[in-house]
């Protein structure tokens, strides 16, 4: 297991980019590391773990909050028994520095042997999440509202909408600048939607993994004072259009299945639900 320094993050991001393919289960995306980069390069490096063999990265994990590990493997290593058993050993032993003792959640592709072995070690399955996908091989319709692509001088606008969209968010322009300084942001765009009165009403960040590969939305939110007017659909359509311009083959997003409003919003924006996925969890 490796704990990369800041200058080693490029290798992990590059591996994740290479692993994005159509038709595979939901998995960690380079955009997930890109979004985490809002906390700064040092914090991002401290949150990333890699597993390699013979100089090749086979698995990448992101400690995305207290007791939460998001992990994926190379597609051709999903059923690699040696790797899977090493992953289980590392994530279940607190002294390895991946997860602390006690309550924990792990997000991993459901077709991975690692996911199966966690079950054999007593990890249960948590509440379901719904992945949604929009194909981008055909042109995307124009959104029904004005869309602005956010640059450095408008980071404060993006930050204000994001704070108003997510309860308890303290996101500030400084965090946007930290995120934009990260290498994954070279293939990302931040968008803000405006209503007919000129008010900023919704925002989204999209992350490409390169031409011909799936891109993701992370995050998308509608201002709490402007909900119920179709702005979620509009910004979702704009996100799909932005990813298509970046060359993405499809747009992906993941939301708790219990959030029926979010599922409905993405569906209205041309996304289609895929089979549900579930994290593994360990009680305290």
Structural features:
single chain; 284 residues; alpha+beta; twelve-stranded mixed sheet; 9 helices; 12 strands; 31% helix
Describe this structure as you would to a colleague.
The structure is a single chain. With 284 residues, the protein is of the alpha+beta class. It contains 9 helices and 12 strands. It has helices spanning 9-19, 30-36, 41-47, 81-92, 113-120, 155-165, 173-180, 231-245, 260-268; strands at residues 48-53, 56-63, 68-73, 104-107, 124-135, 146-149, 188-194, 200-207, 214-222, 250-256, 272-273, 277-282. Strands 1, 2, 3, 4, 5, 6, 7, 8, 9, 10, 11 and 12 form a 12-stranded mixed β-sheet that branches. Helix 4 (81-92) links the parallel strand 3 and strand 4. The longest helix is centred in the C-terminal third of the chain and has 15 residues, at 231-245. The mean pLDDT is 96.
Overall residue-averaged pLDDT value: 96
How many angstroms does the end-to-end distance come to? 25 Å
Beta-strand share of residues: 25-35%
Order of helices and strands: HHHEEEHEHEEHHEEEHEHEE
Task: Output the radius of gyration.
Answer: 19 Å
Largest sheet: 12 strands, mixed
Shape: globular
Total helix count? 9
Task: Please state the structural category.
Answer: alpha+beta
Uncertain segments are none
Task: Give the helix level as a range of percent.
Answer: 25-40%
The number of distinct β-strands equals 12
């Amino acid at each position: 297991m490796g704990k990369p320094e800041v200058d080693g993050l490029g290798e992990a991001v590059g591996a994740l980019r290479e692993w994005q393919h159509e038709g595979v289960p939901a998995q960690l995306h380079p955009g997930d590391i890109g979004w985490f980069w809002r906390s700064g390069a040092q914090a991002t490096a401290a949150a990333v773990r890699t597993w390699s063999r013979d100089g090749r990265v086979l698995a990448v994990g992101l400690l995305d909050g207290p007791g939460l590990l998001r992990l994926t493997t190379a597609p051709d290593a999903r059923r690699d028994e040696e790797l899977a058993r090493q992953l289980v050993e590392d994530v279940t032993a607190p002294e390895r520095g991946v997860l602390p003792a006690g309550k924990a959640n792990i997000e991993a592709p459901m077709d991975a042997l690692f996911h199966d072995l966690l079950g054999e070690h007593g990890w249960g399955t948590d509440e379901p999440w719904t992945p949604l996908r929009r194909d981008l091989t055909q042109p995307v319709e124009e959104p029904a509202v004005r869309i602005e692509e956010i640059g450095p001088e408008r980071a404060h606008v993006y930050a204000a909408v994001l704070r108003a969209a997510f309860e308890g968010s303290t996101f500030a322009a400084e965090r946007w600048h930290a995120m934009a300084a990260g290498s994954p942001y070279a293939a990302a765009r931040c968008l803000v939607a405006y209503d007919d009165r000129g008010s900023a009403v919704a925002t989204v960040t999209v992350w490409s993994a390169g031409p011909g590969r799936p891109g993701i939305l992370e995050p998308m939110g509608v201002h709490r004072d402007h909900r119920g007017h179709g702005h979620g659909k509009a910004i979702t359509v704009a996100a799909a259009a932005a990813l298509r311009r970046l060359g993405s083959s499809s747009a992906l997003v993941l939301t708790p299945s219990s959030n029926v409003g979010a599922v409905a919003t993405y569906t209205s924006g041309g996304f289609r639900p895929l089979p549900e996925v579930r994290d593994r969890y360990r009680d305290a």
